[in-house]
Structure formats: C-alpha cells, structure tokens
Amino acid sequence: MSRLLPLAVEGAVGRRRSRTIVGPVDLRIEGAGITVVIGPNGAGKTSLLSLLHGTERLAAGRIDWACPLEDARHAQAFVFQRPVMLRRTVAENIAYPLQIRGVARKEAQARAADWARRVGLGEVLNRYAPVLSGGEQQKLALARALIIEPDVLFLDEPCASLDGRAMREIEEILLAARDRGTRLVMSTHNMGQARRLADEVLFLLQGRIHESGPASTFFTAPDTPQARAFLKGDIVE
Amino acid sequence: MVDLWSGFSQAFWLVVTFDPELAEIAFRSLRVTLSALLVASVIALPLAALLAVKRFRWRRWIIAILNALMGLPPVVVGLVVYVVLSRSGPLGVLGLLFTPTAMIVAQTIIIVPLIASVAHQSLRELWAEYHDLLISMNVTQWQKIRTLLWDSRRALLTASLAGFGRAIGEVGAIMIVGGNIDHATRVLTTAIALETGKGDFGLALALGFVLIGIAVVVNLSIHWLSRTERGDRW
Fold it and tell me: Is position A108 within any domain?
C-alpha cells in the first residue's frame, strides 16, 4: 500500500550537545493506522518524531524506510505543536508544498481551495494566514501537510492549547486521512484523544520506549507499573 | 532668511516653468541613483538571504564586515573607484571615468553593504520563524532564499529605500568619479556644491529643495505602488 513502510528503526539515538535526549530506540512501523506516542514532558516525544522525520540528526543507530531516503523525505509531512504560518494568504500557504514541487499554478490553486474546504477554511481562503485563530492555524497546517498526500504524517501534539470543538474537527480530519491510507504517527498529552485515535501506542519514558503495543491491550491491561500509573493520571518520572 | 526665501521662490519658478537645465540635472540624478539602486538590490538582497540561510565558515566575518561598511566614507569609495578606472588603472581601458556609469559603480559600492545589512536583519528573523517548517518540507537552498525574499518583501523595500536615500543625497564619491561636468555628469548634489561654492545660494537652495522633493516623491510612489501601510497588512 505504502512505498515507505515498513519503517525499521534500530538503536536510534538523538543527542543535543552530547546529552542523549532520546534513544536508543528500536521500533517498527508498518501497515495502516495511527500510532500514538505518549509519555511525560521531556520523555523525548518530539525528539523521537523529528528523528524519524529526519529533521533531528541521528547520533547513532539506523532508520530505514522501505524506499531510498530522498524519496522518503518527499513522501512525508510534519505538523508542529505551534503551527508555522507563512506570511501569505491561507490559499498560498496551503498551496506552498505543491509550489515547491513544481505543480502548475492553476492546478495548485485549485487543489489548495479544495483542501481548504475539506478542513473548513473554505470561507477564509484570501485571509492573511498569521491573523487566523489557533484552531484555524492548526487546520491550515494540516491541510498544508495533507495536500501532498503523504504516505506518513507526523504530528507533534497537534491539539495542544485547542478547545474541544477545534480538537474534534482536527480529529475528524486525521481519521479521514487515515482512512485514505496515510500512516499517522502523533504525540499527545491528552489521554482521551489517545484512546479515541490510537491503533498502536508507544509509551516513552526518559527517552526510551518503555512499553508499546496495540491500543486495545495497552489501555485495558498495560504490562508495566509505570504505564499503569501514567494512564491512571499519576505523575511518572 | 532672505536667501532661504529666494531659494524657495526660485525653486518654485524653476519647477513650474519646467526649467530644461534643472530637468536635465534632476533626471540624471534619478537615472544614476535608480540604476545604482537596482544593481545594488540585485546583489545585496540575495546575498542577505544567503547569509541568513546558509552556515559557512566566513559567514560571521562577512556579516560583521558588511555592518562596518554601512558607514563607508563615500569620498574614499570615490577615490578608489577613480584610481581603478583612471587611464593608468586596471580598468582604465574601459574609459569609464567621468561618465554616469562610473557614478553608478561608485554609488552601488556605497549602498550594497547598507541594503544587505538592513535586509539581513529582517531575513534572519523570518528565517528563525520559518526554519522548522522549511527544513521539514525539504526545500532546496534556492527555494528557501526565494521564499524568504518574497515573504519579507516589505522589509526589503524599506532596506532598498534606505539605500536610495543614501545614494540620492551622496556627493563625495560622484563628484570625484563623475567630475561634475555640465551636460554629462552634473547631478543635483554636485550642482548644489558648485553653486554654493560660487556663492549663488538662491539657486543652490532651489536645487536642494528639488532634491528633497524628488526623494519624497520616489518614496511615496514606491510605497503607494507596493500598497504598504494599507488595510490589515502592515
């Protein structure tokens, strides 16, 4: 189904100034679905996602996609916790990934308008993107990530600091993307969201994968005491 | 006060009668400075973007030197360009000394560091904002530069206008390399210097007011054309 997957990670380590912030991590991602990365602050969720995405330098270990790295880099997208708005209109923001891929202007505009409508920004196509509300900006970021129809989409706490309604709308967009065959890997602090979306769970603690498994078993019967405590809402360090 | 008044009235009459000599000088001023501005912007803006985007060994040095050169003394630039372009100089065969081209070269050298420095400041801020997104999208170096230049075009316009201001009012360099030759290389600033030297303060003041007027008109029309300071964009 996907050219990129399976993704095989062996002993991957991310370092900042000789301090190990994530890893060593062994991991395999394949098939369809949503992988949710959970864990306390500073557990290395963001670093792990950037490491997989290729924007964080790999200090040790291997990350192998099923296709050459250069192709893999172009078939994935990343949505940040705080969306970055280009100082352009909504339509130009969404069309930007197509523009840098050399898609003809007319076609790019048409597809951007289509995506804006799908995420509920059809009415504000010509607004200046940096003045949008937080929820609208995150929806724009999603449309901008999904317009290239990525095989894999990474999301770093995409719903942090959003209210219930915006969160629900974004979750609907994510589920629709999954149903179209995009593999999602997202981190979240919101356990409700994790339960709603996850097919697979990675529980990170101090830079390492402490426990992982299918969502059904992880949420009902976690193996480790730390995971149990974390799910219960206790403070885990 | 009498001189100031006569300057005003003389300027007024020179403009409304569309004095051919004044028109010629003013037009040459504009031509030289706008040409220098165009060349300098084409050099300085991509350079500023490159300095913001690319990390290479001499980057800090280049930025520091550009900042220092913002205060480059025009007279010295004029002198160096003079020596290079003079008959016995390395580029003497081109025969450019005492031509408007030489003046354009001198003014370009003077304003490139200014435009590059001011542009670099705002491009650097924009790059800090865009960095994660553009790296994640795996864009090429050239696409980064184009995106930054386009999205900060208003700030770049300000940088260019600062360069225009410095060039249009500059006299030291173009006096040396142009020679203030009537009907050939005389521009507003050199004409003012000449008339002041001759003691014709009225005419000198008149030329001065015309110079200020041109600078204001050019700034306003560029702002108007680029639609800054309007609507919800700023």
Answer: no
